[in-house]
Amino acid sequence: MISIADLWNSTDQRAWKGALDRYWDGIENEGTYSAVLPPPEQWSALAALCVWLVNQYGMSPAEMIIGHRQCNSTECPGERFFGALAELRKDIMRSL
């Protein structure tokens, strides 16, 4: 899961419950990404969704797209995927 900050002040229960949930929302990417990245189709869909969210809410991908592990005790989104978040941010910026 990656987290998108400041979308809205959510108060509902989430699987990744933590102290920051009031200010963050998340996007789940089905799969385990410790050794591999999401398939290209999933990566493209994720980037497109993030572009829409960034445009919709006026966010900065450089500041707002983080790994779930940065706000909760978990390995999510997996070591390989976590290491590629900078590339995801770049893909989003290129599409803006």
Give a written overview of the molecule.
This protein is of the alpha+beta class and 96 residues long. It has one domain. It has helices at residues 40-57, 61-64, 79-83, 85-95; strands at residues 2-5, 24-27, 65-67. The protein has a 3-stranded antiparallel sheet. Helix 1 (40-57) packs across helix 4 (85-95).
Features:
single chain, 11% strand, 4 helices, alpha+beta
SSE layout and pairing:
Layout: E1 2-5, E2 24-27, H1 40-57, H2 61-64, E3 65-67, H3 79-83, H4 85-95
Antiparallel strand pairs: 1-2, 1-3
Helix pairs in contact: 1-4
Summarize the structure.
This protein is 40% helix and 11% strand. The protein is an alpha+beta fold.
Number of strands: 3
Global structural class:
alpha+beta
Question: Biggest sheet: strands, sense, closure?
Answer: 3 strands, antiparallel
Cα radius of gyration in angstroms: 13 Å
Mean pLDDT, rounded to whole units?
A: 78
Strand order of the main beta sheet, please?
2-1-3
| DSSP helix fraction | 25-40%
Count of helical regions: 4
Q: Percent of residues in beta strands?
A: 5-15%
Distance between the termini: 22 Å
